[in-house]
Design goal:
globular, 8 helices, seven-stranded parallel sheet, alpha/beta, 7 strands, Rossmann fold, 42% helix
Length: 254
C-alpha cells in the first residue's frame, strides 16, 4: 500500500512567541496569526495604551497573550526581555521611515532609521538566537522587511539601505546558526494599508506609482502577511532559512 506523506503541522501549541511592534498594523496581525495557531504571544510595543488594548482584544478571543512595553532601540531593555526566557518564535515588526531625497537626508534622520530598522533588528536576533542555543532548542526568527530590501524606490534611499542591510544580515546569521536549528528569515511586503502608510496612499502621484508597480492591481492588506508569518513560524517551514518571502503582488517580478 502506498505510504502517503503528511503535511507538516502549522500548529504552535505549546510554543511561546515574541512579536515586537505588536500594538497595530502588521505587528498586530502577526500576533493574531501566532495566537490563533496556539502560541502564547508576548506582544511588545512602545505605547502602553494601544498595546494594552491589543492584548485585551487577543485575550477576548480566548487566546494566550501578554504585553511588554518596550522601546526596541533601547538595547538594555531589549536584552532584559531574554533574561531567563526563551522564545520559540520571534517576529520583529518594529520599524520606522523618514522618506525624502537622499541629498536632503540629515545625519539625525539616518541615525534614527538605522537604529530601529537595522541596529535593534541585529541585536534582537542575536539575543533571541543566543537564548535558544543556550537552551538547546530550535527556533524561528522572522523579520518584517520590505520589497524595498530588493529594489529601490522614490525618496527611499535611507529606508532601502536599512532593508537591504537587513536582508544581508539574515543570510549571514542563517549560515551561522543553522546547525543549531535556529532559523531566520524575512517577510517582504509591498505597500500594506495601515495607519502609517495612509499618507502615501493619500498622495495621488505616489498612489499611481504604487498601482502601476503592483501587478495584481491592488494594495496589500495586513491579512496578506499573516499566513506567511505563520508558515515561517511553524514546522511547515522546517527547511527554510536565510531567505525572504516576497509578498509584493509582483512588484519585483520585472
Amino acid at each position: 500500500m502506498t505510504q502517503l506523506p503528511r503535511t507538516p503541522s502549522f500548529s504552535l501549541s505549546g510554543k511561546t512567541a515574541l512579536v515586537t511592534g505588536a500594538s497595530s498594523g502588521i505587528g498586530l496581525g502577526c500576533a493574531v496569526a501566532l495566537a490563533e495557531a496556539g502560541a502564547h504571544v508576548v506582544c511588545a510595543a512602545r505605547g502602553a495604551e494601544r498595546l494594552n488594548e491589543a492584548v485585551s482584544a487577543l485575550q477576548a478571543q480566548g487566546w494566550s497573550a501578554e504585553g511588554r512595553v518596550l522601546d526596541q532601540g533601547d538595547l538594555t531593555a531589549l536584552h532584559a526581555l531574554f533574561n531567563g526566557r526563551v522564545f520559540d518564535v520571534v517576529v520583529n515588526s518594529a520599524g520606522t521611515a523618514r522618506h525624502g531625497p537622499a541629498v536632503e537626508t540629515a545625519p539625525e534622520d539616518f541615525d534614527a532609521v538605522t537604529s530601529v530598522n537595522l541596529r535593534s533588528a541585529y541585536f534582537l536576533s542575536a539575543y533571541a538566537a543566543k537564548a535558544l542555543m543556550a537552551a538547546g532548542r530550535p527556533g524561528s526568527i522572522i523579520h518584517i522587511s520590505s520589497q524595498m530590501g530588493h529594489v529601490g524606490g522614490i525618496d527611499r534611499a535611507l529606508y532601502c539601505a536599512t532593508k537591504h542591510g537587513l536582508e544581508g544580515m539574515v543570510k549571514a546569521m542563517a549560515i551561522e546558526w543553522g546547525k543549531q536549528g535556529v532559523r531566520i528569515n524575512t517577510v517582504c511586503p509591498t505597500f500594506i494599508r495601515t495607519p502609517l502608510t495612509q499618507a502615501t496612499f493619500d498622495n495621488p502621484e505616489r498612489a499611481a506609482w504604487i498601482m502601476d508597480k503592483i501587478k495584481l492591481n491592488r494594495v496589500g492588506e495586513v491579512e496578506d502577511i499573516m499566513g506567511a508569518v505563520l508558515y515561517l513560524a511553524s514546522d511547515a517551514s522546517g527547511l527554510v532559512t536565510g531567505t525572504s518571502m516576497l509578498i509584493d503582488g509582483g512588484w519585483t517580478a520585472d
